[in-house]
Amino acid sequence: MLRFLLTVIRRDLLLAARRRGDWLTSQFFFVMVVSMFPLGIGSEPAVLRMIGPGVVWVAALLASLLSLSRLFADDHRDGSLEQMLLSPEPTVLLTLGKAVAHWLIYGIPLLVIAPVLGIQFALPAEAILVLVASLAIGTPILSLLGSVGAALTLGLRGGGVLLTLLILPLYVPALIFGAGAVDAALAGTGAEAHLSLLAAFLVMSLLVSPWVAAAALRVSIE
Amino acid sequence: MAFNLYYYASPATFYGLAGRLIPWFAWGAGILTLIGLYIGFFMAPTDFQQGEAYRVIFIHVPAAWMGMFIYLVMAFWSAIGLAFKTRLSFMMARALAPTGALFTFIALWTGALWGKPMWGAWWVWDARLTSTLILLFLYVGIMALWAAIDDRQRGDKAGALLTLVGVVNVPIIYFSVQWWNTLHQGASIKPSGTSMDEIMLAGMLVMAFAAWFYAIAAALVRVRTLILERERHTDWVKAILES
Amino acid sequence: MEWASWSDFWAMGGYGLYVWGSYAVTGLAIVAEIILLRHGRSQTLKRLRRMRKWEEQ
User: Fold this and answer.
1) Which pLDDT score, from 0 to 100, does residue A190 have?
2) Radius of gyration of chain C (CA)
3) Among B113, B139, B236, which would you mutate to test the C interface (most chain C Cβ atoms within 10 Å of its Cβ)?
4) Does A184 have pLDDT greater than 70?
5) Contacts of residue B221 in chain C, CB cutoff 8 Å?
6) Segment holding B180, helix H or strand E
7) Which of A22, A156, A218, B23 lies at a 20 to 30 A Cα distance from B201?
8) Contact flag for C and B (3+ C-beta pairs < 8 Å)
9) Chain B residues 43-82 with a CB less than 8 Å from chain C
10) B117–C12 C-beta distance less than 8 A
11) What backbone torsions phi and psi does residue B233 show, to the nearest 5 degrees?
12) What predicted TM-score, i.e. pTM, was given to this entire model?
């Protein structure tokens, strides 16, 4: 079973490596969206520090949603998804593997880029650390919950936008605690509470999402 | 009492039962509304702190309760439908959603109109208001998903799954005023008793029942239309279409 | 609750806009839903009858 999971992850990593364009686009999208806000709102350091955590987090949500619509759709289009569902391995491992791969490909780079953006937003070092920590805990949540949305909307017209509509309400707790953690660090009140709640949300997502996504895949394919 | 529930799990028999029940719930809702409004406007006294503005409570609280309650009922029928594959369960879930969304909207609207004179703001991003807004988004998302899926069975199950994923939001709304320091007031009605004036409470409860009866009536009307559409190839529906 | 006069009742101690704004929108929303329910049912019946006619030909 573990072998199946690792195979799913490795396959997705390989496919992403071959189509580096998609991956790069997603990262540039993240950077560009974040950069829009100082241009639109104003670049005073105090203002930037206030909006920075939220802006980075919202951009992370949007970048994640962009790439999620392709999570199952590419495999569905060439028939390989059906093949994988026919295998005797539990579908849960497929959805979990896909979510993990999505996080490795699209989530981890955000952690690398975020410090640079933090500096752009005049965040002090400690806040940047908390920002990266919150994203480290939060981006897996985005991939996990997103996999549920991707499975539910597989093959539907209006797919990408519909996916966004469905998943954004579910992302809200992660956004609130993630950005809130950085705000707390900036205010000096300590980010532990927010980060623990975020971690709890991650555990909940981990326990629920793969199964719901598997059920949703079966519903969408049959 | 040997009551065979499976009898009414058939759309055909439920159609008849619903048709007989609707008038009771509809008239009941109407009468309770009149009683509730009478209590609210002609018996309940002026509030010491809030003046007459508090009278929004007779709609706001029942609407908020119904918005949450209907979602829970939807989640219940979604779970039953997924577990037992009963068509009617999914139809009930579909029939409830628009009414639930409507009550949630009414709760948000009346809340804003109550908040402006009382707190000085139409809207604040505190835990209860935010999670109620999220509840509205969930309703809209579920209805959008149903609208986007042509295959009826796929739509039923997908919507049911999404409903169940979102159900965790309802306890968050309910407990938000305990878990966070919020601007929104805490629970006035607890199992241990209430701090509200008795007449105000009575008015609110009567309106809550009125809203409940209304929601049942609306859902039953909607589900009957859904049943007709889905069962149109059966003889009993054909007979109805002929008459 | 004794209202001194009808105008007092409508004024709601100065909060009339908020109180009646709430009740009015609620009333409109409920009426709209009821209308849509009835309309939905009659449209469905009409459509199903039409479909039956086509299918029988």
Assistant:
1) 84
2) 22
3) B113
4) yes
5) 37-38, 41
6) none
7) B23
8) yes
9) 43-46, 51-53, 55-56, 59-60, 63
10) no
11) -90, -5
12) 0.90
Whether C52 is in a domain gets the answer yes
What is the end-to-end Cα distance of chain B in Å, rounded? 36
Tokens standing for residue A132: 């990266």
Taking CA atoms, B145 is separated from A68, A149, A205, in Å, by 17, 10, 21
Contacts of residue A197 in chain B, CB cutoff 8 Å? none
Where along chain A do its domains lie? Answer: 2-221
> Does B242 have pLDDT greater than 80?
yes
Q: Which of B200, B195, B196 is nearest to B40 (CA)?
A: B200
**In this structure, what DSSP letter does residue B54 have?**
G
Q: Decide if C13 contacts B52 (C-beta within 8 A).
A: yes
Q: What is the 3-state secondary structure (H, E, C) of A102-141?
A: HHHHHHHHHHHHHHHHHHHCCCCHHHHHHHHHHHHHHHHH
Residue B193's φ and ψ, nearest 5 degrees, are 135, -175
Give the tens place of pLDDT for each residue, B31-41.
Answer: 999 999 999 98
Both structure tokens of A51: 């909006």
List B193's β-bridge partners, or say none.
B190
Helix (H) or strand (E) holding B190: strand B189-190
Q: Does residue B1 register a pLDDT over 50?
A: no
Q: From start to end of B42-130, where are the E strands?
A: none
Provide the token pair at B204.
């609110």
* pLDDT, position C13: 84
pLDDT tens per residue across span A11-59 = 999 999 998 888 899 999 999 999 999 888 888 888 899 999 999 999 9
Domain count, chain C: 1
